[in-house]
Amino acid sequence: MQHERIATKVNTFMADVIQRSPGEPEFHQAVQEVAESIIPFLDTHPRYQAAKVFERMTVPDRVIMFRVVWEDDNGTPQINVGYRVQFNNAIGPYKGGFRFHPSVTLGTLKFLGFEQVFKNSLTTLPLGGGKGGSDFDPKGKSDREVMRFCQAFMTEMQRHIGQNTDIPAGDIGVGAREIGYLFGQYKRISNEFTGVLTGKGLHYGGSLIRPEATGYGSVYFAKEMLATKNDNLVGKTCLVSGSGNVAQYTIEKIIDLGGKPITFSDSTGFVHDPEGVTREKLAYIVDLKTVQRVDISHYIQHYPNATYHPGERPWAIPGDLAFPSATQNEISETDAKTLIQNGCKLVSEGANMPTSLEGVEVFRNAKILYAPGKAANAGGVAISGLEMSQNSMRLSWTRDEVDAKLQEIMKRIHQQCVTHGQEADGYTDYVKGANIAGFIKVADAMLAYGVM
Ligand code: NDP
Ligand code: 2IT
User: 198 CB less than 6 Å from ligand 2?
Assistant: First the structure.
């Protein structure tokens, strides 16, 4: 009965969200997952409900959308769309990455911006949430084309961001190369050297451990979850998806902590290496993806005991732990069931929303250790927050100092999830825990500001 009443409330809430944001299925999915945690919580916390704080949180503070025109190497003008979704700055300036990928739409960036608000709140740092990007595809472009695009994109973007207003960073398709071009153009136009972007190169204001932070953080979070069962990563077979920034450092930290990564993927398919990816093999993957910029099928020419599976994802390979680290909705309901049937005990999401709503239900019903991206991958933005601190202080911390802070932050995020997500039978619902903990801090700040 209680269950049905809540379901009706969630449906009514979602009908309103969908009506206000038609044609944005990923955004609806992200809101629905949070609504299922927050709406029952509001029942016992009427002051948030009376002020309609959660309803307000589903509408971005503002959306900026603009044309980006740049010249390709043949001198032909190319047109893309640029966006910045400034979702919520109740607890700090807007913070979140840029994604450059042909699939980017306003709906994609609204889902990412919405998730970012809760994630950033969980980091314990004073960071609001935002996301931006473009439908520009860096793949197959020359460095100079990428540079011209980044300069054209930043020429408009620069008027909307700033070190105390909105601090972008990287995401899919935006790595060290793109951040360099973007920061250079911002600096040129503003005539100021400030920490307006994070993920910068070490020689111009970047933080040690920022490139590693998302992947390392996701594995540290897995370590915390396993510790609640008196377990650890030693000897565990690990399924990783993706082969970009997050996947690379996830693989590295799994190796460091004694686990055995046996898969990785990209948009063309996945590789299964039953002998395990070693540090040497990882260096080869990094070279393929960031220097040669080719697909991962080349791996098996170098390591013939591995197999390449075009057009597939790694979830049918038996493994103890799963680290989805590529993109949204890469684990379907069927994939989730297969993982459980094959004995998977833990899922730590390095990617944002990699599991479909139905897949999440499968993991929660099976009561495995399942950490949603907004908790497990928050290490990246947390170290971005520490890059901002170092920029403001005009000094930089050592690798060990930043790594220690990252581990401490992941512990605190884990603790918040346990505090708000533990159920009567002792099971920790990390989805509920992350959503409620993230919500409270932002909601309390919004209440303090009155009606706006
Ligand atoms: P990268 O661009 O470095 O790597 C992305 C990886 O995912 C590549 O292997 C890419 O394959 C693959 N991929 C991208 N899109 C698709 C798709 N539609 N289908 C299949 N594979 C795809 O990005 P990151 O590693 O930075 O980001 C990975 C995930 O982690 C994203 O969900 C991102 O939002 C999330 N994240 C990133 C953070 C960061 O600090 N960078 C922080 C927190 C979360 P290919 O090379 O073929 O394109
Ligand atoms: O999804 C994410 O948290 C990121 N892409 C990182 C954002 C950031 O500001 O470092």
Answer: yes
Ligand 2, atom nearest to 95 Cα:
9
213-367 homologous superfamily: NAD(P)-binding Rossmann-like Domain (3.40.50.720)
Q: Say yes or no to pLDDT of 1 above 90.
A: no
Q: Which CATH architecture has domain 62-194?
A: 3-Layer(aba) Sandwich (3.40)
- Using an 8 Å Cβ cutoff, are 313 and 253 in contact? no
Q: How far apart are the first and last CA of the chain?
A: 35
CB count in 10 Å sphere of residue 291: 8
Q: Which two tokens stand for residue 236?
A: 């565990």
Q: Are 139 and 295 in contact (CB under 8 A)?
A: no
Q: How many CA atoms lie within 13 A of 137 on its CB side?
A: 4
> Residue 2 has what pLDDT?
83
* Catalytic pick among 119, 131, 289, 432: 131
**Residue 241 Cα to ligand 1 middle (Å):** 9
Question: Which ligand places an atom closest to the C-alpha of 246?
Answer: 1
Is 266 touching ligand 1 by the criterion CB < 6 Å?
A: yes
Residue 99 near ligand 2, beta carbon < 6 Å: no
Beta strands in 89-201 (DSSP E): 94-100, 129-134, 166-169
Does 213-367 match 62-194 at the fold level? yes
DSSP state for residue 83 in the 8-state scheme? E
CA of 4 to the centre of ligand 1 (A): 37
At 213 the pLDDT is 98
pTM: 0.98
Is 119 among the residues known to form the active site?
no
Ligand 2 pocket check for 350: Cβ under 6 Å: no
Per-domain residue ranges for the chain?
2-43, 62-194, 213-367
CA of 381 to the centre of ligand 2 (A): 5
DSSP assignment of 390-419 equals HHHHT----HHHHHHHHHHHHHHHHHHHHH
What average pLDDT does range 437-445 have in this prediction?
98
Residue with the smallest CA separation from ligand 1 atom 17 is 267
